[in-house]
Amino acid sequence: MHSPARERLWPAAGAILTIDLGAIRANWRWLRDRVAPAACGAVLKADAYGLGAALVGPALLAEGCRDFFVAHLEEGIALRQDLRGQPGAEEARIHVMHGLFDGTEREALAHGLIPVLNSLEQVAGWAGLSRAEGRRLPAWLQLDTGMARFGFSAGELDRLLEDGRDLAAVEPIRVMSHLACADEPGHPANAAQLGAFNAMRRRLPHLPTSLAASSGIFLDRAWHGDLVRPGVALHGVAPLPRGENPLRPVLRLDARVVQTRSVPAGTAVGYGHSFTTRTPSRLATIAVGYADGFLRSASNRGRAMWKGMPMPILGRVSMDSIVLDASALPENALRPGDTVELIGPDHDLEAVAEAAGTIPYEILTSLGQRYHRRYETGAPGSSGEVLQPTGPTVTA
Ligand SMILES: *Cc1c(COP(=O)(O)O)cnc(C)c1O
């Protein structure tokens, strides 16, 4: 798989994380075309789900994306910086989905960020700054249509409208909500939330809407609203647990073998001796562990792949290492320094998540900082341009 030239790029790291920016762009285009004429944004919270907002943001901007979403103000400030100087950056709208804590409004304005207002307090804060600035500052309003997490409940909307002064002081430009069960198309909450959303927004001045995240995009058009907010689908994760995945995989994780050994039957492996070999076995120890974000819950359950052959994880995942069963591989197939696939074409994010008892989102956002990161920009098959992220990384 790896040419010797490529190997030399990362001689010092225990594993290499390869991120295909071209695939992220292709996934965004696919989603954009699916929802048209609705607009398609991109959710880049949590450092673009662990993949690096500093490179994913500019890649999507270049693809034509103009609506970006983060959770925290701090993420919005960082993303504004990451987009600066790129063609189209002036038109990029960055939305802070958590809204703003009291006293941080000026900071948001200084960086040209648009808050999502979730509560009476947040509207009051943004209204206060609007009055001080002598103009109505743009914001989104979030409605809680049945998730009890963010936004105005029907009762809070009553209160917002009763004394309409704060609302009149700001400029609401869009109304949004978020679906709790969109990954189950038949779930009655989907229709209930859509109904609640339509009923609540009729009480506000007419505004464009936003309702669907990745899974909602795969529901009927009625759930799309005027602008969709995909996050995980950009990274190729199947939007629905069953069925064809039309999206392209985006990342692979290759771990290096530190040591191999042959052991007799009855050999206990790893911390707590949670696994004992039943037959004479060949073991391979790789340089990835839970400190890299490879979840400990994959102990005795997950696996790596080598040329399409599974290598089960034996015993517990350690902080910096994992022991794999290499018995099915030809003898001497693996040598120290060789790589095995932990995530990739033979073992996708869904399978990795299932083995760890979690969801692909958690696998992505746990990806650690110790991997050597390699960003590809090319189409599949082409060698592609390789970008190096700024910040600490092992380079040639
Ligand atoms: C995280 C989030 C999204 C993106 O969700 P995905 O399922 O990753 O597409 C969209 N909207 C809101 C409000 C979110 O919190």
Automatic annotation (TrEMBL):
Source species taxonomy: Bacteria, Pseudomonadati, Pseudomonadota, Alphaproteobacteria, Acetobacterales
Biological role stated in the UniProt entry: Catalyzes the interconversion of L-alanine and D-alanine. May also act on other amino acids.
Top-rank taxon, per record: Bacteria
Needed cofactors: pyridoxal 5'-phosphate
Region annotation (Disordered) ranges: 375-396
Residues recorded as bearing N6-(pyridoxal phosphate)lysine in the entry: K45
InterPro entries linked to this entry: Ala_racemase, Ala_racemase/Decarboxylase_C, Ala_racemase_C, Ala_racemase_N, Ala_racemase_pyridoxalP-BS, PLP-binding_barrel
Coiled coil (residue ranges): none
Annotated pathway: Amino-acid biosynthesis; D-alanine biosynthesis; D-alanine from L-alanine: step 1/1
Pfam family membership, one: Ala_racemase_N
Isomerase in keyword set: yes
Catalytic site positions: K45 (proton acceptor), Y271 (proton acceptor)
Gene3D superfamilies on file: Alanine racemase, Lyase, Ornithine Decarboxylase, Chain A, domain 1
Protein name in UniProt: Alanine racemase
Assigned EC number: 5.1.1.1
Example of a GO MF term: alanine racemase activity
Similarity field: Belongs to the alanine racemase family.
Underlying gene: alr
Catalyses which reaction(s): L-alanine = D-alanine
The keyword Isomerase belongs to this UniProt entry's keyword annotation: yes
Domain Alanine racemase C-terminal: 250-376
Binding positions (substrate): R149, M319
Keywords in alphabetical order: Isomerase, Pyridoxal phosphate
